[in-house]
Specification:
The complex is a heterodimer of chains A (521) and B (330).
Chain A: E1 15-24, E2 27-37, E3 42-46, H1 53-60, E4 68-73, E5 76-77, H2 83-89, E6 91-94, H3 106-111, H4 125-138, H5 154-167, E7 172-175, H6 184-199, E8 203-207, H7 211-217, E9 220-225, E10 228-234, H8 240-248, E11 266-274, E12 282-287, E13 291-296, H9 302-310, E14 317-322, E15 325-326, H10 332-337, E16 340-343, H11 347-351, H12 358-363, E17 371-372, E18 375-376, H13 378-391, H14 408-417, E19 426-430, H15 438-453, E20 457-461, H16 465-471, E21 474-479, E22 482-487, H17 489-493, H18 497-506
Parallel strand pairs in A: 3-8, 3-9, 6-7, 7-8, 13-20, 13-21, 16-19, 19-20
Antiparallel strand pairs in A: 1-2, 1-4, 4-5, 9-10, 11-12, 11-14, 14-15, 17-18, 21-22
Chain B: H1 3-6, H2 17-27, H3 29-44, H4 51-76, H5 84-101, H6 107-129, H7 135-153, H8 168-171, E1 173-174, E2 177-178, H9 179-197, H10 199-209, H11 211-216, H12 221-247, H13 258-268, H14 280-299, H15 304-329
Antiparallel strand pairs in B: 1-2
Helix pairs in contact in B: 3-14, 4-9, 4-12, 4-13, 4-14, 5-6, 5-7, 5-12, 6-7, 6-12, 9-10, 10-12, 13-14, 14-15
The chains are: A alpha/beta (521), B mainly alpha (330).
């Protein structure tokens, strides 16, 4: 249950970091950062990937030992590198990757490590369930504590992680990208939970990539860039542009480049693809130079459609034709041979092999082009990959660097760039900027528009509304694995288009009578 | 300046040579461990550091080297091959049977051993890649099955009285370098090349690192998976031939437990049992480490049972040191 005692002395910072310095393998990540959090405040920690946000959080929660500097919690020095001491002093962190154990129930997750026992030393499940229910209700969650946590949507699991942290007496709550994996409606719920905690005197620090969330959730914003604290400002005293400029170190004149025109030559032809049993068949064409946006709610079937086109997933029926050649369903190899390229949604799970180097990752899809009789021609692939990565402005310590040590934006550049060592006619993009920071995001937009202008037919699924509106020549709105509507460039430019897309995506348009809500997952 | 460095933000500072040596030692910690063990045995036993004894170590290492190489490939895909010990026995029995029943020609046992090993490996590969049975289970089944076959072939007894030509495979050679030693050296170099420089090697690493991502990039993971088990079986077959040729006997309990030494060699060499990480050179070092310990303890006249105790401790300690060093590297 939350400990809601507000600290007596508001002058003592809840969390005080002084002169924090840290480097990994000789590369400085934090170069002397000071940060203080007052009780009852919500602070947004902004910055591009690689700016040092996560590292700072890990130091504040005792996971890393800084090279220099001190952390104080409510006036007490935190022994460096001790998570146990941090927990005891009331610092809790909810990491980006969910730490809940999916096979256990909600209450088991809440109590693991500090189980309630009976006199005989066995688990007192009844007491734990009762306490869990109380804790959940205090956060406005009407949830059965005995359900398996893996069955819940990601956003709910995130909130339960917060419940877990605060019910252990946390006074400082660190949230690393709490919204990166959850649906919009759940974000609102999360914001409410955070406000609630603030009112109880908890000091909250969270990281995010999204400006709306900085605006709606926090009252102060701190910007890190290249390991230094650039800006520390009350939210009311800084503009959005000011925050972005602080993050990327230059003015961001225009996030989206201008769209070029497209030809009438049809490259990709989708005929009567049935993505899932019972769904309406989907048909459309994409022309050379055209970017087709796929909009829709999470779970509308956009990723599944892209997987069917590429051949990782077999559609129930229907055909995919690229430049007049019909692809073999379920055979990525035949798609690659027809110059189809894909950037999957789940970069770490499906896009990159993190344990391999940039060079090896970039060689993989076009390996035949770089080898003779099965032996890799080292110079050839280094030249080709080096040239592509140079044009993509990849930031790395060389092509031999392991993917796992790159930032999200740079990983994405490799996952996209690896196709460009050969011809690409059809480019399939699934959430191309997920987990990518603002600076790299505009670079990726530029690359996408350039590639289309060079003559690719591009299909881009995105949950980011501005991407669909600004980057697509045409958009399809998907619902229940089918196309609910199509929007032209002119319609995409009209002011009420967001409303139209939402209505189509959620099935609220006049043509349907169903008013049931879409599932989120 | 090559193109590869053109876009690179260099973070390499000029460092002092002392810290560079420290860096090198941390990076190649197993070589340090190896040198320490060699130094210890050389100090304690006058016979240890003689050319004759080094050759003895190599001869003892050869049959292990073959199965450790196959094991490395399997482990790189994230699998494991528990069956190699039994496949050694079954192949040795098949080879001995052929020598006894088909005639006095050393080609027969070679073919018999290769076919037996390849067949066992292919079955493992099919069960893992097509039936999606977890490798641990599939090869555990083969371990039992192949051991059974080995006893069936000999009717429960060893096959003795083989023609002298049977001993050719293990006992001929050039200047003390017998066929198994030469085969070991050639195989290590060949596999190091394959894993480092060929598209096949890259695909093996890719599947082990992230099978889904590899498939999306066009890698046919089922074929690759099949191949690593087939290769492991083939090498176990050859290993069986070498071992039984040395004593000119087919024994159904030959190679028992060898799979564990092979796995230990791979793991000492720095490979991850999760797949995707590890090298052939690492395995070679791991293998030599284990064989050196075996040999050194023999020379020091340590009783056999105590040898196992010491070996067990050293294996775990060596990997613990490696894990520690890996942390320091970051």
């Amino acid at each position: 249950m939350p400990h809601t005692v507000v600290d007596a002395n508001p002058d003592i910072a809840m969390l005080l970091c002084e002169g924090i310095e840290m480097s990994f393998g000789g590369v400085p990540v934090l170069k002397g950062v000071d940060l203080h959090l007052q009780p009852g405040t919500v602070t947004a920690l902004a910055g591009e990937n690689g700016a040092g946000k996560s590292t700072l959080m890990k130091i504040a929660s005792g996971q890393y030992r800084p090279d220099a500097g001190e952390v104080h919690v409510r006036g007490q020095a935190l022994p460096a590198g001790s998570t146990k001491a941090a927990t005891e002093l009331g610092v809790a962190i909810v990491p980006q990757e969910l730490a809940s154990i999916p096979e256990l129930t909600v209450y088991e997750n809440l109590f693991v490590g500090r189980e309630v026992r009976t006199r005989f030393g066995t688990l007192n499940r009844r007491a734990m369930i009762k306490q869990a229910r109380t804790s959940l209700q205090e956060f406005g969650l009407d949830l059965d504590p005995t359900v398996q946590i893996g069955a819940l949507p990601v956003g709910m699991r995130q909130i339960i992680e917060i419940v877990k942290a605060t019910s252990r007496g946390a006074r400082v709550l660190l949230l690393d990208e709490p919204t990166s994996a959850i649906a919009e409606r759940e974000v609102a719920h999360l914001a409410e939970v955070i406000r609630n905690l603030r009112d109880q005197g908890v000091a909250v620090l969270f990281t995010t990539h999204k400006m709306e969330e900085i605006r709606s959730m926090s009252d102060r914003v701190v910007v890190l860039r290249d390991g230094r604290l650039i800006t520390d400002s009350a939210l009311t005293e800084i503009t959005d542009d000011g925050i972005v400029t602080a993050m990327i170190g230059r003015e961001l004149e225009n996030l989206f480049p201008d769209l070029g025109g497209h030809t009438d030559e049809v490259i990709l032809q989708i005929e009567d693809i049935v993505v899932a049993p019972g769904a309406e068949p989907v048909s459309f064409t994409v022309r050379r130079g055209e970017i087709l946006g796929l909009a829709g709610l999470v779970g509308a079937g956009r990723s599944e459609l892209i997987e069917c086109i590429y051949g990782i997933r077999k559609p129930v029926s229907g055909t995919v034709t690229v430049s007049g050649q019909t692809l073999r369903p379920g055979h990525p190899g035949s798609s690659i041979a027809q110059h189809v390229a894909i950037v999957p949604e789940d970069r770490k799970g499906a896009g990159a092999v993190l344990s391999m180097s940039v060079l090896d990752n970039a060689t993989l899809p076009r390996i035949a082009a770089f080898s003779r009789f099965g032996i890799i021609t080292e110079r050839k692939r280094k030249n080709a990959v080096g040239e592509v990565m140079k044009s993509m402005r990849l930031k790395s310590n060389g092509l031999g660097q392991h993917m796992e040590n790159l930032s999200g934006g740079n990983q994405q550049k490799v996952v996209l760039g690896r196709w460009l060592t050969g011809a690409v006619d059809t480019l399939l993009l699934d959430e191309p900027t997920r987990g990518v920071d603002v600076g790299a995001r505009s670079e990726i937009y530029r690359i996408i528009v350039d590639l289309a202008a060079q003559g690719m037919a591009v299909v881009m699924a995105s949950s980011d509304m501005p991407e669909i509106l600004s980057l697509a020549h045409r958009a399809l709105v998907m619902r229940e694995f089918s196309v609910a509507g199509e929007l032209t460039r002119e319609q995409l430019a009209s002011p009420e288009v967001q409303d139209t897309i939402f209505r189509l995506a959620s099935g609220l348009d006049a043509s349907t009578t169903s008013l049931t809500e879409e599932p989120n997952q | 300046m090559s193109i590869t460095n053109a876009d690179v933000v260099s973070t390499q500072d000029s460092r002092r040579w002392t810290s560079m040596i420290g860096d090198f030692l941390i990076r190649h910690i197993m070589i340090v461990v190896m040198l320490l063990i060699v130094a210890f045995f050389a100090y304690r036993s006058a016979r240890f550091a003689t050319p004759d004894n080094l050759l003895t170590i190599l001869i003892a290492a050869a049959p292990f080297a073959l199965i450790a190489l196959g094991q490395t490939l399997v482990i790189l895909t994230g699998g494991i091959d528990l069956s190699v010990g039994s496949v050694i026995a079954a192949s040795a029995m098949a080879a001995a049977w052929s020598a006894k029943n088909l005639g006095d020609n050393p080609i027969y046992p070679l073919i018999a051993a290769v076919v037996a090993g390849l067949l066992a490996g292919a079955i493992n590969g099919l069960v893992v890649s097509r039936l999606n049975v977890p490798p641990f289970i599939a090869t555990l089944g083969m371990l039992t099955l192949a051991s059974g076959i080995a006893y069936v072939i000999g009717n429960g007894a060893p096959i003795n009285g083989l023609p002298a030509s049977y001993g050719m495979w293990a006992n001929t050679g050039i200047g003390g370098f017998t066929i198994p030693v030469i085969l070991m050296i050639v195989s290590i170099i060949a596999f190091a090349f394959i894993m480092r420089r060929t598209s096949y090697g890259l695909r093996v690493y890719a599947i082990g690192g992230n099978r889904l991502a590899a498939e999306i990039a066009g890698v046919r993971s089922k074929g690759i998976l099949f191949s690593v088990y087939a290769i492991s079986g083939l090498l176990a077959g050859l290993s069986g031939l070498m071992l039984s040729s040395r004593v000119i006997t087919g024994a159904p309990n030959l190679g028992q437990g060898y799979e564990l030494d092979a796995i230990a060699a791979v793991v000492i060499g720095g490979a991850s049992l999760m797949g995707g990480r590890g090298t052939i050179w690492g395995t070679a070092i791991g293998l030599l480490l284990i064989q050196t310990i075996n040999n050194g303890l023999d020379l020091l006249l340590v009783p056999a049972y105590w040898q196992n105790v010491i070996k067990g401790v050293i294996i775990v300690a060596a990997v613990a040191v490696d894990v520690w060093a890996a942390k320091r590297r970051k």
